[in-house]
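User: Predict the complex.
Assistant: Input components as received:
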Amino acid sequence: MTAVLSPTLESAYPDYLRCLDAADEHGAIDIALALLDDGVPADEVLLSLVAPAQAQVGEWWQRNEWSVAQEHAATHVSERVVAAVSVAVRPRATRDRVVVACMDGEWHALPARLVSEVLRLDGWDVTFLGASVPSPHLVSYLHRHDPRAVLLACALPMRLPLAFQAIEACRRTDVPVLVGGRGFGADGRWASKLGVAYATDARAASSVLATAAFDSASAPSLVDDTEYAGLVAARVELIDLALDRLDLSRYSPAQVDATVADLGYIVDSLAAAVYVDDATLFGEFVGWLCEVLDSRGVPLHTVGRTFDVLADRLRDFPRAHAFLRGAAVS
Ligand code: B12
């Protein structure tokens, strides 16, 4: 990924990536603090150094150039950098209280954390609840603290139906909801389908929060969810069916586990695409899946065969059937 950075940041960026690669926590913190000393604003350090470096980490993992362990080590370093920047700057809250949370099942806490810190720098009094907050607990927290708004993060499009449930649960507390994260699509198009206010990043979130009545929600434009409900009900059966048709005799136990997980992602992404009635959600997922599998030496014809098996079973599911038939496996 090519990040567009100011000259000072530009020269620091490769060194920062090297620190992530070496899991060099102190080196990475030194780089971030030196940038602050040089007058680079803290939000710039968070959004133009830490955030693109994390996206780069994701691409290395996606292409199988980095292991999960390397990604975890790098993410830990970035978390420490965010904490160090936050301690160094210590902004004072001058604006209302807002709550930032990852929806249930969402483990990408760092993006939401970056958003929280940048909002703090902009004067908001932020409570960051972290990863995977179960909706009932979030709701009771909102009842108790009655913030100006709750910001919900979703990083994976396949989780959109669950995101909508979390949004609806929060709305019943009368606390305005603002969402963000890659899960809502690059341009937030699936947030508009769900009829919820969306911000592309933390700076945009701050502007939206400053707008009165930003969550005067438009109605969601979801088609009837009978087909989605049918897919959810058939989830286990679909995974079993696809597993039956694969020749797993030469797979190691770890490969079988990974295959089961991938089949779960396929069914969940298909169901999410049906939910928002958008073939591009499934198409983007398939592009990502093919890159992940191809870089790990999995022959892509197995994906094509799996889609045939699922499409055959899902003849009575018009949208799911069309999305499977329209998916380009390459
Ligand atoms: C670190 C990481 C993890 C860590 C997270 C740890 C942590 N403490 O956060 C762990 C190991 C848990 C993880 C798990 C998984 N991950 Co992951 N992960 C990443 C990675 C490398 C970095 C995340 C990050 O910090 N990004 C940096 C932030 C700043 O980027 P950002 O999301 O664009 O955020 C900006 C905006 O979107 C916005 N924003 C974000 N959130 C919010 C919220 C609000 C309210 C607002 C207003 C704005 C906003 O503002 C941010 C700042 O500008 C990303 C790569 C990537 N491109 O992000 C993959 C990535 C998101 N993960 C991915 C995947 C597939 C997974 C797993 C499914 C992997 C697996 N097989 O288990 C699981 C799912 C776990 C789950 N159920 O949540 C894929 C998603 C692919 C896709 N097309 O859906 C990615 C893109 C990697 C890749 N290139 O393939 N992951």
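Residues 47, 51, 54-55, 57-59, 61-62, 71, 75, 105-112, 114-115, 151-153, 155-157, 178-182, 199, 201-202, 205, 288 surround cobalamin (CB under 6 Å).
Let me know if you want any component modeled separately.
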